[in-house]
Automatic annotation (TrEMBL):
Residues 14-130 form the Gfo/Idh/MocA-like oxidoreductase N-terminal domain. Residues 142-257 form the GFO/IDH/MocA-like oxidoreductase domain. Pfam families: GFO_IDH_MocA, GFO_IDH_MocA_C3. This is Oxidoreductase. The lineage of its organism: Bacteria, Bacillati, Actinomycetota, Actinomycetes, Kitasatosporales. Belongs to the Gfo/Idh/MocA family. Coiled coil: none annotated.
Amino acid sequence: MSTVADPQHREPPLRFGVLGCADIARRRVLPALLRTPGARLAAVASRDPGRARQVADTFGCAPVAGYQALLERDDIDAVYLPLPPALHPEWIRRALTAGKHVLAEKPLTTSSAETAELTALATASQRVLAENVMFVHHPRHERVRRLVADGAVGVPQTFTAAFTVPRRPPGDIRLSAELGGGALLDIGGYPLRAAQFFLGPDLRVAGAALRTGEGAEVDCGGGALLVSGDGATAQLTFGLDHAYVSRYEILGSTGRITVDRAFTPPADHVGEIRLDRADGTEVLPTPAADQCVNTLAAFVRAVRTGEPAAGHGTLRRQAELIEEIRRAAGTTDREPGR
């Protein structure tokens, strides 16, 4: 089944096509598309016709053999692209050229030059190009930002964030340099994007380290120290070969905010914000929210409001900071997808 447009909403639903049948598409994004107001899943493409048919039958849409064939359909307004990162530039470019709006999995590309090129193309084409960073659309983090703005912890001094996951199985695309894998691109983007979310875009990299696991061809973990224009620091940890951690902390002059299960909470997870100050600790419950549906709904709104350049500055700065971290770590000769 597919989402039915709100009868009070006069515009027809935004018709999505999907390029690829990746796990994240089948497990999270396609089910969320079916629940997103103003969106309709129209087709899914795979290079394997049988695979396309299997996924299409599961989600009630049309199967398409081949990515280009989907882009040539006139019943597709936007594409969701969950392909490996090294394939993103080619297919984002093709989709924009075909007149489609694009929501791509993170990282958008593996280089700041490609990100700059594609955001410029999206602007010239008057099409929305967005990166599927879901956690920024969870209301818990906006509440944290309001608490900080209201002086709940005084002047923010240090932002600390960690996102690490257990070892990936052999053959996982995140362990392939050719496909654009590695901890920095795949996992590091979360704490890095969170640092921008809370400290703003005026960040510079003061130091970084990346670790390559035994026999691995990509970085499997690392950390970075960033400094904002007003002197606040951000300490980031990320990894693909660790115990699971997903949290951040904002340490201010008069208090501290801590958020656990920060980046990929299930849609039914009732979370909390821990606020520690000199007069005691306050635990603020936060309601469950489906950040995947919220992300898709935000994308639909961006298309409807006709603001193709919304968020492009953040996309470009994210890509630049990733390259700055790689340079600081002394690993520019190992850039993925190159």
